[in-house]
Amino acid sequence: MTRGTYIAVVGLLLVASPHPGNALQAGQAETDVVEAVWAVVGDSAILKTEVDAYLLRLSADGMAIPDDPAELKLLRERALEQLINETLILQSAAADSTLQISDEELEGRVQDEVDSKVREFGTLGQLQAVLERQGMTLASFREQQKQQINRGLLVQSYLAKQGRNASAMAVSEQELRDFFDENRARIPSRPPTIVFEQFFMQPVPSDTARASTLAEAERVLQLVREGGNFAELAKRFSQGPSSEVGGDLDWIRRDGTLVKNFEDAVFSMPAGGVSTPVETEFGFHLIAVERIRGGERHVRHILFTPTITQANITANGVRAEEAAALLRTDQAVADTSMMKIDTLNLQIAQLPQLSEAHATALQTAQPGDVVGPFPFQQSSITALAVIKVLSRRAGGPATFEDMREQLESTLGQNKMLEQVVQGLRNAAYVDIRLPGGG
């Protein structure tokens, strides 16, 4: 479900807290009954653990969870109400056979969410590192998003079929300002942010090294064509980390996890096919697609990496220094063929998720400053980064204008949901069992 939907759920009860997870985790110890039923809706039960998981998702989306027990209780009550309302809609949607979300649309939405997170954290590798610190893999993150997005799309489809549209709900300027004033103390402060352009450069092997490596890849390809076992050849010749398992990459999807050239080759091949050498930033690959299962491919590869010499490393350093010099005199970098360029908009607190070098270099950098080149590890490659700071915004209380669009969406959504859900609740069995009279 989208962040906007979550915010609409609880009426912007965003309570600032320096440690958003602590109160919730402490609250989980209130009872020894982990699977306590907090509500029954028709033939469905809503558990305490579902409410807490819901709040943790809100926390991950930027909402602060209150430390104060009374405020936490109120937030849980509102979250439970939202889950009841969502369950009522989903039960009605399930009874309508015309409301189906196609796998294609769902996968597309999931990929959009992954792409958005990659942009937020700068690179796919950085996103994977963040997920790992949260005890997740990219695959488990995708599955989590798939379930949430599917529920959200079903709710949206149901509401659309009822002829309901949040944007059609009239919300006055006075309602917006009153709602903002009522919740001003609970809206978290705007975090300090920075926008910068990053020039990313890594050593480039010589043409001679590339040609020699390509020739080696073609020699091994001939061994495969003569009947050689691909997995055994991968153990013998691959320079990638998967060589010990015969180049096995397991099942993969076209989801941006692997570099584009590699994915393009994989998803253009039949089961049992072996590619000609495919070049990526890591070298040359021979790719074998062993099986196809829906949108997944079971893949092995053999990686041949061109030798990087000290001369290549030195040349990369010269390129980086030249780029920095041009940026410091407000000149454009003319030759960008051997570098990647990204524009990132991040919270200052997110910089360590790129690298400690980024956090150190940009902690006090101001608009117009050029920092670098500085080294940082990108996959197995030590690269250089040069950064030009485009803008910086200090943190502080969120203003009405900062929140206007979100407030308008929230109030419109709340009005629409009230109309739809009231009819469903009148016709359904709902038993709330929240402890403490909630």
Which descriptors apply to this entry?
438 residues; alpha+beta; Triger factor/SurA peptide-binding fold; Chitinase A, domain 3; four-stranded antiparallel β-sheet; 15 helices; globular; disordered N terminus
Topology (elements, then pairings):
Blueprint (H helix, E strand, L loop, with lengths): L2 H8 L9 H8 L9 E5 L2 E4 H13 L8 H26 L8 H19 L2 H10 L4 H24 L11 H11 L9 E9 L5 H19 L4 H8 L10 E6 L6 H7 L11 E3 L2 E11 L2 E9 L5 H19 L11 E8 L3 H4 L1 H7 L7 E9 L2 E13 L6 H28 L2 E3 L6
Antiparallel strand pairs: 1-2, 1-11, 3-8, 3-10, 4-7, 5-6, 6-7, 9-10
Helix pairs in contact: 1-15, 3-4, 4-7, 4-15, 5-6, 5-7, 8-15
Fold and architecture overview:
Strands 8-3-10-9 form a four-stranded antiparallel beta sheet, with helices on both faces. Strands 4-7-6-5 form a four-stranded antiparallel beta sheet, with helices on both faces. It has a three-stranded antiparallel beta sheet with strand order 2-1-11. A hairpin with a 2-residue loop joins strand 1 (37-41) and strand 2. The protein folds into three domains: 3-188 and 397-437, Orthogonal Bundle (Triger factor/SurA peptide-binding fold), CATH 1.10.4030.10; 193-204 and 309-393, Chitinase A, domain 3, CATH 3.10.50.40; 207-304, Chitinase A, domain 3. It is α+β, with helices and mostly antiparallel strands and 438 residues long. It has 15 helices and eleven strands. The chain has helices at 3-10, 20-27, 48-60, 69-94, 103-121, 124-133, 138-161, 173-183, 207-225, 230-237, 260-266, 310-328, 351-354, 356-362, 400-427; strands spanning 37-41, 44-47, 193-201, 248-253, 278-280, 283-293, 296-304, 340-347, 370-378, 381-393, 430-432.
